[in-house]
What we know:
single chain; mainly alpha; Tetracycline Repressor, domain 2; elongated
Amino acid sequence: MNKAARTKQFIxxxxxxxxxxxxxxxxSLTDLTNATGLTKGSIYGNFENKDEVALAAFxxxxxxxxxxxRQEKAKQETYRDRLLAYVHVYTxxxxxxxxxxxxxxxxTATEADDTHPALKQRAAEAMSKWKDSVAHEITMxxxxxEFSPQTNPEQAALTIIxxxxxxxxxxxxxxxxxxRNAIMQSLETLINxx
Length: 194
């Protein structure tokens, strides 16, 4: 990696938590310079504008979450256990290097729904990929006889994601860990009943 690429990566890594915690609108240029220790000129010498930094930061945050889930799923032998890896990860999220501020899809979708079309599009694409990944696990589990053939993979995938995202939102909003635990127990039951 050349110096320009390293600098760009440094900017993304340092600003990704800021964008994920404060959101696009809440993140100022001062926040970016404070996070990186670089000048405005250094940041904008590597990125065209704040939008470009925010989009790169979102992709970085999504990659962090995706890698955590991928690693946990890879340890499992059955498709049911691969789905239950979500329960394990989100019940024990402090044991994993999640991005500061929580789920980047939830954070970005909530903020960028009407104010930032490009970020909204990236969040929608990330959600679609997640849905497709979970639906694929369910489809394969049906083929292997682990799940009922009457299971609708897309519907089940959307329900699993909605429960996870709702759990994150409720727990973040209330600060009540026992809510998270109760919701994750419900998700575990749902997966076991597929």
